[in-house]
DNA sequence: GTTGAGCGTT
């Protein structure tokens, strides 16, 4: 049964009521719609006053005793920066302010631009979100050809938030906008996406699109070539993606398994030495290592595809490489 | 055969 759950970011805040799903679980996406960047919930054990963590499985938070009740739940945020061991005891009120202070605009990377898109095109498109103070298309210095990505920066943080919260149809291709090299950024991109495992080779991108469109608007399908028995499907709405995590589906007679799309580059498990925290603040989590050895030279060859589908079939070319 | 692809000459 669906119910409303009282949630606060900080124990002293006024609660916001968040709806659970019909099965009683709370989608992390529902929670993060009200509390961006939150990664979980905790509540105080009434008997001891100690915080208890809420179980999180496949994007769903599970009620502690079968029901959420009138209990107050407190958001948990990733990575308590600034906190040395032993400091845990005091929740200083500055903590919240600190997070708010981070709400500054940063450069945003625009991934997946059509080769033909120019800075003027980008400016035209993105200015609808707010005032732009940077627009760039990255090009090969020799050929002058676009590298298929660029950067924008807004002056208004609300514009930035809006912009990174959705996919963008630019000159006929779906593009992602996110914080460069940041874990937050990649998480953002992942939560609209499902990983489809156990695919058979006869399942085409077209099959996946038409099948998953039953559940919500599909904005992208990706099948690695050569065949590797998995695929990705991106929905316009993160809630659609997250509601499917953990499910099995039959497509063309094959049982495929849907789970969350993990970032390609996972953080190294061991971080040693002082984290090189730049004093500047902002979203500078510099710990994503992006595949240094990869050349990506195919991108410059040609646009012809040995993939199954033409680039214009859906107005985008996720079916080829690129 | 269950985790792609793209990250900035300033």
From TrEMBL:
InterPro entries: Nucleotide-bd_a/b_plait_sf (IPR012677), RBD_domain_sf (IPR035979), RRM_dom (IPR000504), TDP-43_N (IPR041105). SMART domains: RRM (SM00360). GO terms for biological process: mRNA processing; regulation of gene expression; RNA splicing. PROSITE patterns: RRM. Residues 274-283 have a biased composition (Gly residues). Residues 260-308 are annotated as: Disordered. GO terms for molecular function: double-stranded DNA binding; RNA binding. It comes from the Eukaryota. The keyword Ribosomal protein does not apply. It holds the Pfam family TDP-43_N. The keyword Ribonucleoprotein does not apply. One of its GO terms (cellular component) is nucleoplasm. PANTHER family: RNA-BINDING (RRM/RBD/RNP MOTIFS) FAMILY PROTEIN, TAR DNA-BINDING PROTEIN 43. This is TAR DNA-binding protein 43. The lineage of its organism: Eukaryota, Metazoa, Spiralia, Lophotrochozoa, Mollusca.
């Amino acid at each position: 049964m669906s119910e409303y759950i009282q949630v606060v970011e900080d124990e002293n805040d006024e609660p916001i009521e968040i709806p659970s799903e019909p099965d009683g679980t709370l989608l992390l996406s529902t929670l993060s719609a009200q509390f961006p960047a939150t990664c979980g919930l905790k509540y105080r054990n009434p008997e001891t006053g100690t915080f208890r963590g809420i179980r999180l499985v496949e994007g769903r938070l599970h009620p502690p005793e079968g029901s959420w009740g009138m209990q107050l739940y407190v958001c948990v945020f990733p990575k308590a920066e600034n906190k040395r061991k032993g400091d845990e005891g005091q929740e200083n009120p500055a903590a919240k302010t600190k997070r708010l202070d981070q709400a500054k605009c940063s450069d945003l990377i625009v991934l997946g631009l059509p080769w033909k898109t120019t800075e003027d095109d980008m400016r035209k498109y993105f200015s609808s979100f707010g005032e732009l103070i940077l627009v760039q298309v990255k090009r090969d210095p020799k050929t002058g050809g676009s590298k298929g990505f660029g950067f924008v920066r807004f002056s208004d943080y609300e514009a930035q938030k809006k912009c990174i919260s959705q996919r963008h149809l630019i000159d006929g291709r779906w593009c992602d906008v996110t914080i460069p090299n940041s874990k937050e950024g990649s998480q953002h991109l992942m939560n609209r996406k499902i990983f489809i495992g156990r695919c058979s080779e006869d399942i085409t991108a077209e099959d996946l699109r038409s099948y998953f469109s039953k559940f919500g608007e599909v904005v992208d399908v990706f099948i690695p070539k050569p065949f590797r028995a998995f695929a990705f499907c991106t929905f316009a709405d993160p809630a659609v993606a997250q509601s499917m995590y953990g499910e099995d589906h039959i497509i063309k007679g094959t049982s495929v398994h849907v789970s969350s799309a993990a970032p390609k580059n996972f953080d190294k498990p061991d971080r040693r030495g002082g984290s090189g925290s730049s004093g500047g603040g902002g979203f500078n989590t510099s710990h994503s290592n992006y595949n240094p050895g990869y050349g990506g030279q195919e991108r410059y060859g040609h646009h012809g595809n040995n993939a199954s589908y033409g680039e214009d079939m859906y107005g985008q070319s996720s079916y080829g490489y690129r």
